[in-house]
Amino acid sequence: MATEAAPPFLLESVVLLGTAVIAVPLAKRLGLGAVLGYLGAGILIGPHGLGLFRNAETVLQVSELGVVLLLFLIGLELTPSRLWHMRRDIFGLGTAQVVLTGLILTALISALADSWRVAAVAGFGMALSSTAFALQLLQERGQLQTSYGQRAFAILLLQDIAIVPLLAGVALMAPGSGEPKGPLWQEAGTAVAAIGSVLVVGRYGLNPLFSFLTRWGAREVMLIAALLVALGSASVLHLAGLSMALGAFIAGVLLAESSFRHTLEADIEPFRSLLMGLFFMAVGMTFALDVVFASWPVILAGVVLVMSVKGLLLWALARIFGASNTDALRIATTLPQGGEFAFVLFSSAAALNLMNQNDKSGLIAVVIVTMMMTPLVCAAYDRIAARLRARGVAPEVVESFEEAKASVLICGFGRFGMVAAQMLSAEGIAITAMDRNARRIDYARKLGYKVYYGDITRADVLRSAGADQAAVIALCVERDDIMRKAIDCIRENFHNARIYCRATDQAHAIDLTKLGVDFHVRETFESGILFGRAALEALAIPADRIATIEEDVRQRDSEVLRLQLTGGLFAGADILHARTPRKEPKHSEDA
């Protein structure tokens, strides 16, 4: 029996996935991180390893879409309020770090490089640290919300933004491959028109599009639309001769204040992670081991040079911008490595014939080794700092972020959720609100509330909305089945959050009690109590008698709920109709 030919890339896909499944957990087990796991997997199966893949460029071209989606997600994070709060560290400290590190490394590398262009690409590429690698270190240590963690994140954020002009600079420095496409003014006009079209469509078209899809489209249609926005804007700028990453970044920024931001982020994140992993594996496939072995002294010297210069500048600049000596040292030991965007920059430069493959392989080797060295440097610093503190030489590190505040995630923003939000906002509590009703979101936004579209039964959407940092998750949705699924999801994924629920009726309150939520209240109970008080006042019942009646009704309601937990919904019905006893008047002993 003849067997049919396998579909294209089937065996290659199995090899890619199988190698990643083995290499990434192993790398994380060794404390090296997922990025190095992907790179190692690519080196192993590439043409310079086992030779299972001969044409790595094909994989690299497809996987570059991961970089596009990464820039889109970075844009989604850049809300104006967040930028304004971190503006000094992002645009001051971050810009100074990229510019000074890039210039100094360029000057030092130019003494060895054949061209100042190669030195500039290498210097500014090495100035960028690894966002994925550094954030993983901070999260594993639980230090992302510390003062130094926030400054490190600000630097990484500016570095992520900086890749856009750096990629544009590489394209400008690249030698021409033929006759120019047209006059300079024509190329400039095309670029401006492309950016303008993306801005106009994004500003006035994206929110109406997603509002329409939430009313009439299924979840997969929302996902398709999200990918269409990211890749479509990237394609428009690519056709105009600009960076695809720039187009995706602009689209992300335009959607940063959108009600659909968290859902878009959660939907695209798996594609971004998969394609970025594929990108790192493709980079590893292009890693020429023979070049590394032939020039290992130069590569080792490059590692020492990059980590020393970056570490010293990070420490000095952090101190200048107000960080304590301890925080500055922690930043310097967390961000001295090269980053994933250096691979993007070097690959782009090689594709444009700005540097040869040997230079590219050597620079990538330096980046990989700096990544491998960073956990060791951090561990060494921690040991030294611990010994110094034990001897009283160094002060204790305060591991708390001074601007951190308790936050509440409100799920369901109808009348009930809106009133709860008013109470919290009156105390200045940070609130994130979510709902799945597009009309309700539009109405709430017109009243000045920031409400996002999202499915509260999905852990990825809740995490994107900040559930892992929320002190309280308030479930104010109308549907009992949706609330039950959300409770299960929160219990499984967000153990530190307290769950407060709106109960629709007594039966629902019984279910919530059995589920053991932290707090619940029936949506009409308190308003019914208030209404009853007003009616009694209208009947001229004395105020002290009304207070006694209210206290008695509340106690009987709690007793009925206790009986219904074991006896069913109709247990304790007789208690509901009992009259509140009157206090007997006190008689004097002389009467």
UniProtKB/TrEMBL annotation:
Keyword Transport: yes
GO molecular function: antiporter activity; monoatomic cation transmembrane transporter activity
Lineage top rank: taxon: Bacteria
Gene Ontology CC, one term: endomembrane system
TM helices/strands, residue ranges: 6-27, 34-53, 59-78, 90-112, 118-138, 150-172, 184-206, 218-236, 272-293, 299-318, 361-381
Pfam families: Na_H_Exchanger, TrkA_N
Domain RCK N-terminal: 405-521
Membrane topology: Multi-pass membrane protein
GO terms under biological process: potassium ion transport; proton transmembrane transport
Protein name: Kef-type potassium/proton antiporter (CPA2 family)
